[in-house]
Amino acid sequence: MKPIQVGLLGLGVVGGGTFTILNRNREEIARRAGREIKVTMAAVRESDLEAAVKKTGSGITLTTNPADVVGSPDVDIVAELMGGIHPARELVLQAIANGKHVVTANKALLALHGNEIFKAAHEKGVMVAFEAAVAGGIPIIKALREGLTANRIEWIAGIINGTSNFILTRMRDEGAGFADALKEAQALGYAESDPTFDIEGIDAAHKLTIMASIAFGIPMQFDRVYTEGISKLTAQDIAYAEEFGYRIKLLGITRRTPKGIELRVHPTLIPEKRLIANVDGVMNAVLVKADAAGQTLYYGAGAGAEPTGSSVIADLVDITRMATSDPGNRVPHLAFQPDQLRNDPILPVAEVETSYYLRMRALDRPGVLADITRILADLGISIEAMLQREPVAGEERVDVIMLTHRTIEKQIDQAIVKIEALDSIAGAITRIRLESLGTS
């Protein structure tokens, strides 16, 4: 049987990993797919052309014009592995218009333009596969879209950015400040010279957008994700969390509630006994709560040449198996049939209900705690635990840390404003959300 011919847009880290695995495991992959999958063409930058020739040998056609790959009549599947929004969006849409199936690892592209891309693919009768776009080598998309298809998914909580997780691990294990931990991540190649997308939660928000869409059958809505990064976290707060029995992780959380769907990325306290709280370094993990299966945890490398390339090839195999099937019998791009997607409301963060960690600098004198607890009580906020540090010699103020029971975020917002207005409180209150991630 004629091999499926693949054109790569990009032969960098992920493209190179994909090419390497396909060559190394060619026979095994063909046994699984039913026919050989072969890279026959790749687009690379002019500056990378010489290195690409050395890597690929004479077996494939190399070009510096990605439109050549998209337009080639000999390419069956276009694998978009170049990243970025432009020209990736235009190339993917042109590939679809040309009747080619598409595999992409581009989470930003899908989070921002997925609705347009999937609509075009549906109308043309081609497939767009994107396992590699979320959590690298972890097959979370397949789990959500197929493995849990019998379930009503209740919530997802994921460590889906390895750079931030590495930084938080170093801050906890070594007591390092954020700036020092970030420098180490950059020195090791885990963080870019401009790490904004990672440390401010944007990368995680892209991935959460995709998972929420598949889990709940809603359109991609990246602009509705509440996003808060880790750049303001201190080693002090991480240490205090440990004293209470919690770890701090940057989580992407989406939850189905009677009022709407939560979409939020932020630092979160998690009980240290939870498996996901013990995911360290650059590793990723996604915890899914479904009504029939209960909780399932997916753990592994969230980035890297071969882990991500593994997911790209899984998509190539899926498309190869399904290429000749009737489009109406294929697994829908977003798990639900296209005409069954719903515009469920996205819950504003002010309406989210969770627990909170609050740290404040308070005068060490009688009555101060009574003033604080009175404000909380008036707003219906109860305290689960509290810690007050002994004053350092010569200082009048001490750290007071409180953990609250679950409450609505707007109630906490009001409480913080009122507590910060007290003469006994200095500076801003640190607020970090807390999730038990239990079975409920």
Task: Report what the structure shows.
By secondary structure, the protein is an alpha/beta fold. It has 3 domains: 4-137 and 305-340, Rossmann fold (3-Layer(aba) Sandwich); 141-301, 2-Layer Sandwich (Dihydrodipicolinate Reductase, domain 2), CATH 3.30.360.10; 352-434, 2-Layer Sandwich (Alpha-Beta Plaits). Helices cover 37% and strands 25% of the residues. It has 15 helices and 17 strands. It has helices at residues 13-24, 26-33, 49-56, 66-71, 88-97, 107-124, 140-147, 162-174, 178-187, 196-199, 202-216, 235-243, 305-322, 368-378, 409-420; strands spanning 4-9, 37-43, 61-63, 77-80, 101-104, 128-129, 153-159, 226-227, 246-257, 260-271, 283-290, 294-301, 353-363, 383-388, 397-404, 407-408, 425-434. The strands form 2 sheets. Strands 7, 8, 9, 10, 11, 12, 13, 14, 15, 16 and 17 form an 11-stranded mixed beta sheet that branches. Helix 2 (26-33) packs parallel to helix 13 (305-322), helix 6 (107-124) runs parallel beside helix 11 and helix 8 packs across helix 9 (178-187). The protein is elongated, with a radius of gyration of 24 Å. The mean pLDDT is 96.
List the helices and strands and how they pair.
Elements: E1 4-9, H1 13-24, H2 26-33, E2 37-43, H3 49-56, E3 61-63, H4 66-71, E4 77-80, H5 88-97, E5 101-104, H6 107-124, E6 128-129, H7 140-147, E7 153-159, H8 162-174, H9 178-187, H10 196-199, H11 202-216, E8 226-227, H12 235-243, E9 246-257, E10 260-271, E11 283-290, E12 294-301, H13 305-322, E13 353-363, H14 368-378, E14 383-388, E15 397-404, E16 407-408, H15 409-420, E17 425-434
Parallel strand pairs: 1-2, 1-4, 2-3, 4-5, 5-6, 8-10, 10-17
Antiparallel strand pairs: 7-9, 7-11, 9-10, 11-12, 13-15, 13-16, 13-17, 14-15
